[in-house]
Every structure is written in structure tokens, then in C-alpha cells.
Amino acid sequence: MERFLSTWLVSAVALAFAALILGDHMTIGADDATATQQVIAVLLVALVFTIVNSFVGPIVKILSLPFIIITLGLALLIINALLLLLTEQITDAFDVAFTIDGFGWAVVASILISLAQTVVGAFVGSKR
Q1: Distance (Å, rounded) from C-alpha 106 to C-alpha 61?
Q2: Which region, left, alpha or beta, applies to residue 18 given φ > 0 means left and ψ of -120 to 50 means alpha?
Q3: Each residue's pLDDT tens digit, 5-22
Q4: 127 Cβ contact partners less than 8 Å away, ≥ 6 residues apart
Q5: How many Å separate Cα 107 from the centre of its chain?
Q6: Low-confidence residues of the chain: pLDDT under 50
Q7: pTM given for the model
Q8: Beta bridge pairs of residue 28
């Protein structure tokens, strides 16, 4: 449970960072939302993103393993972008404001999120 919570926190920071960098191309929360509503939206999107990456991500990555090997890991960028777009669709179903302008921006966002997760994860650490 502690690992899930730390992953959720790291994902929230990474998603907020990516939304900040990408500006209008990736938004979390409504434009007229208060700071509290923005934080809640980021936490909800991060929760869905963490669940998608925990359950759907490994299955897709195992099924795509030959393609990942052939492309020397570049296929992981595509998979992560698709998982991010899946997160957008799920949050949209729950009326949480989270939008990405398209597949290309999802790839850029997945790169930023991966980098931010690596940096923040190094500070948070994980007990194994």
C-alpha cells in the first residue's frame, strides 16, 4: 500500500509538471477552477494514471515485447503515450477535466512524465 501511495504521489507531481510545461496542449482541471479543485483534479488523474500503469501497462508491455526489442525500446514511448490517452478517456468518463491535444502531444507528455517520475522517484525513494 505504501508503494502504491508513493507511486501515486510521484505520478501526480509528474503529471502536474508535464501539464505546466505543455501549457494548452495538456490540461488538467478546468480553466476557472480554484487551486483546491486543480489539486483534486491532478490527484484524480494521477490515481487513474497509476491504476492504468499498474494493471494495463504490464499486460500491454508483455504482449508487445518482441516489438519493443526490435525497436530497441522506442516502442515504449508509443505504449506510454497510448496509456496516457487511455487515462484521458477514463477520466473523461468520470467528468474529470484532463485533455491532451493529440497523439504527438501524448508522446511528448509521456517523455516529460517519465523524466519527472525518474527525478521525483529518486528523491522519494522506494523501500523494497
Answers
A1: 17
A2: alpha
A3: 989 999 999 999 999 999
A4: 2, 3
A5: 11
A6: 128
A7: 0.90
A8: 98
84 CB-near residues (< 8 Å, 6+ apart): 49, 100, 106, 109, 110, 113
Angle between helices 75-93 and 35-63 (to 10 degrees): 130
Q: Spell out a b/e string for 28-64, using b for 16 or more CB atoms within 10 Å of the CB, else e.
A: bbeeeeeeeebeebbbbbbbbbbbbbeebbeeebeee
Supply the DSSP symbol for 106: H
- Give CA–CA dist 128/122, Å, rounded: 14
Which of 6, 5, 2, 1 has its CA nearest to residue 121? Answer: 6
Pull the grid cell for residue 51.
491504476
Q: Per-residue pLDDT tens for 36-53?
A: 999 999 999 999 999 999
